[in-house]
Amino acid sequence: MRAGFDVVQGALELIQPHEQWDYNNTLGAYVTSTATTSSSLNGGTGSDDVRSGEQGNKGLNLIALLFECAVAISVDNLGEAHRMVLELTQMASPYSPSCGERVVAYFAKAMASRVVNSWLGVCSPLTNHKLIHGAFQVFNNISPFVKFAHFTSNQAILEAFQRRERVHIVDLDIMQGLQWPALFHILATRMEGPPHVRMTGMGTSMELLVETGKQLLNFAKRLGMSFEFHPVVKKFGDVADLSMLQIRRGDALAVHWLQHSLYDATGTDWKTMRLLQELNPRIITLVEQDISHEGSFLDRFVGSLHYYSAIFDALGAFLPSDDNSRHRVEHSLIHREINNVLAVGGPGRSGEDKFRVWRSELGRNGFLQVPMSGNSLAQGQLILNMFPPTHGYTLGQVDGTLRLGWKETALYTASAWTCHVSR
Q1: Which end of the chain, N or C, is less packed with Cβ atoms under 10 Å?
Q2: Are residue 212 and residue 357 in the same domain, yes or no?
Q3: Which H or E element spans position 284?
Q4: Same-domain status, 277 and 144
Q5: pTM for the whole structure
Q6: Smallest Cα–Cα separation from 292: which of 343, 357, 351?
Q7: Nearest-angstrom CA–CA distance, 385 and 102
Q8: DSSP one-letter code for 332
């Protein structure tokens, strides 16, 4: 049952997070009018209609209580927020057939963490990268979002590497390197012959990086392609000396960054920007989530509820509510992202300025946009065709970028950039 998505989106349309608003007058009116409309459409008769109405009313009540809890947190009324969080966690299940109820369940968990952090200043739990990487691979298999990022970026990199004999890719958060075998295959079959490929993979675990390097090396050998892998256990923004990346003069250099909210992969934004300028790559491929991490708690709450309800709805359109893969992705990935957007930091949030939209900052700092080509668009459409129902997804070229969304909500934007004088 996916009616919960429409309930969430309808409520969000009535709220402007940057303005003062009255919960009772705004959301309460929405709940009343929607319940009345639902009742009149159902005609008020029949057991199925009654059950549907009861489920709809439950969803409306959950969303209303969730908003009220967010307002309490935003004004530091933690006692009242705690009471509502307890009520929400008892009412909403992450296993529910209702998309809206699943969303509320995970948001309630994140807000519970926020309340505890605000009271006690508890640090965030350590990141289990093996667990995240495993769930990320499942996410790659059950939805088009990861594949969209991989294939559109690969196409831009392929075009930048034309007729180059030595190429170097710096992946700012390589994980398992899922996207690179497809690029290797195309490079290995070039008319002019395969280039020598060098890859610098950045991450937080040498063990995981070495394993990724072995997998990529074995794949390259099967293709008869010359390949080197250099692991760097460091956040890109924390690199003190670019010699750590072992950049070689004469190599065509590409930098790839698939952004997410699972953990901080790159460190300080301004340092990351400065290092990108120093690297002077031939191409930067960037895939951004269309969600903001800046602003007040209420700003982030409204934006993330809008964003993640669309993600949940897209997964629910492709997989049944009891699917184990769907639950693994929701629990291990999406829940963690929601928690990082809402809960991590609390009053001790770093206050460090984060770029709202990285592609805008690249344009302001000396980088030139490389319009995503028609071939990249075709790659994106092929990916969507693998995941019915395709009618829910939206894919289009917007100001030189490629944007993937679900219904009316933009979710991921892919763009490519180069320096004025690049390698």
Answers
A1: N
A2: yes
A3: strand 283-289
A4: yes
A5: 0.85
A6: 357
A7: 26
A8: I
- Single-letter amino acid, residue 333: L
Task: Give the type of residue at 300.
Answer: R
Q: Band the pLDDT of 8: cuts 50, 70, 90.
A: low
Q: Which domain holds residue 368?
A: 129-291+353-419
User: Of the candidates 358, 345, 352, which has an alpha carbon nearest to the alpha carbon of residue 291?
Assistant: 358
Q: Among 206-215, 269-278, 356-365, name the one with the lowest average pLDDT.
A: 356-365
354 contacts: CB under 8 Å, gap ≥ 6: 269, 293, 294
- CA-CA distance, 389 to 377, in Å (whole number)? 19
Measured CA to CA, the distance from residue 334 to residue 329 in angstroms comes to 7
What is the rounded CA–CA span in Å between residue 152 and residue 181?
14
Judge whether 373 and 110 are in contact, CB under 8 Å: no
Name the token pair of 101: 């109820």
* Predicted local distance difference test score (pLDDT) of residue 343: 74
Q: Which of 14, 64, 15, 13 is nearest to 35 (CA)?
A: 64
Q: How many structural domains is the chain composed of?
A: 2
Is the peptide bond prior to 389 cis by the omega test (within 30 degrees of 0)? yes
